[in-house]
Amino acid sequence: MSKPLNVAILGATGAVGTELLALLAERNFPIAQLKLLASANSAGKQIDFGSQSIEVEEVQVNSFDGVDIVLASAGGSTSKQWAAAAVEAGAVMIDNSSAFRMHPQVPLVVPEVNPQAAANHQGIIANPNCTTILMNLAVWPLHQIKPVKRIVASTYQSASGAGARAMNELKQNAQQVLDGETPQPQILPYQLAFNLFLHNSELDEQGYCTEEMKMVNETRKIFSDPKIQITATCVRVPVLRAHSEAINLEFAEPFDTESARAAIAKAPGVKLVEDFAKNYFPMPIDASGQDDVLVGRIRQDISNPNALELWLSGDQIRKGAALNAVQIAELLIEQDLVRVNA
Amino acid sequence: MSKPLNVAILGATGAVGTELLALLAERNFPIAQLKLLASANSAGKQIDFGSQSIEVEEVQVNSFDGVDIVLASAGGSTSKQWAAAAVEAGAVMIDNSSAFRMHPQVPLVVPEVNPQAAANHQGIIANPNCTTILMNLAVWPLHQIKPVKRIVASTYQSASGAGARAMNELKQNAQQVLDGETPQPQILPYQLAFNLFLHNSELDEQGYCTEEMKMVNETRKIFSDPKIQITATCVRVPVLRAHSEAINLEFAEPFDTESARAAIAKAPGVKLVEDFAKNYFPMPIDASGQDDVLVGRIRQDISNPNALELWLSGDQIRKGAALNAVQIAELLIEQDLVRVNA
Fold first, then answer.
1. What is the pLDDT of residues B116-147, one digit of tens each?
2. Most exposed among A40, A79, A246, A254, judged by the fewest C-beta atoms under 10 Å?
């Protein structure tokens, strides 16, 4: 790769921040200097990166001086607070939050799907919602062969989507249930251990929650297809870090399963995992820690000759967040879209 | 109720058998004599029923002499083995297994949906699949107003559907994961703790598993509607004893949500549970131990003007199995369909 860059991670101590650090090291991302930024609470912590130990700094208005790329994963309000400072300092901010995703001047990029969109950035590139990324990776290879008309998605989302503290709470609450105690969840709205609940993001007047509408609106933007019809039911399940999704796809005409299977098998970012003889298909424990989204059990929908059913599991922290962000950064380097600071 | 009956429970020591006993007591079912039958392994165990302690007997060819109603929940092969003996002895067998469900001469009954079907019994009445019962209770009130054309269902099925030993294995494996160990499941095909997997029943040549095809075929039989189109994705999740389902319903024309809500609110066997302001909807821990199936988050599907989305949680052991069987027995008494032995 090219000239090493000055990189900052905003939200370095969270679940996604931790994974960003691991991925930058693992993928030999060309780093000149790495800054770890977080709130005042986390400032002063030492975090290992390769052979270095880096102190976490409190993010401030001059934190972005000399920074080329900011990987932000500290939530929407933090991204909104610091985006202008980062862009003014000449950095490109790759933002994991939902703050800018639907902004018409902000590209929303899944590198395997719409890498060309990155070229139009004006300092901010948004990383899509995790559930959306996973679904898009599986659906895009089929959509390119025959356009998808309608998607009915049901999700099985892990605790990691609510952050590292939610993962810890799931484990603590599970232990309490096993010990015969009644958990009192603090991070999640309801007990998740041995239970599940509809995703608790804000509901709109149609009764859809924000998470479901992200799948609808972000997919339309990423696919550049405002007409694709999508409905989703998002559910939080007691799994630690990989999301699964049951996806029903309707086309204008039949889509034979062998063609669909072949398209998934050769598509980037997804891995066909199905062994019908062994009744073995994607599972969260197998998807955890993997870059690829596992896709399988591709079936002709017996209720509709023009529909297919498929099932996927993908690492929510990795491809659903951190990996996609690092891939966007790599794409910026490849396409010479980083305005490298002097 | 009428004259007390001689009742036998076949499979008295399993998860459903235990619940059958509790329900017979709770509902003051008119029992003259209660026989507890099981395999040789369980024979000799003492089980409490009200103030009595009843010894479990090994099921034998003469076990059904003088028995009026057999509640069978010991699996399909056991039901097949003993059905003829029970019927020849003059008993009515209410069978929880899948052995006879699709037999054209065996009624398949959900008392809130098709009580009239029981009248045609010839000694055996089948209790439907648990996932099917729960879905049917929620869909039937709507189907009576405007016929459902197509159902797309995704399930979130608890360990109890695989029996009491699977529930124990889920707890044991969860403890192992919390202790940093790697579980080695024996009852379930894969680790269920902090994981999930597609239902592992046998796959047909179309790639649908038996559980999914039960939802398709049994619903058609119960609704007496061979044309209703159904597709399902059945998933086992790390929950102990209630199943949940995300259900997309397509009609021939729009079905307004207020009418749907009103129909669910007044239908028997279901309870409307939705608080949009509090983001509170049916959850397995709330459905556990309840007779009613909790239904909520009824939404106009934004992807199809003729479709509705709904969500449910229902106790798999109770309404999904034991309660429905006891309700069938009560129906037989009410309709004078028990051929009471002298």
1. 999 999 999 999 999 999 999 999 999 999 99
2. A40
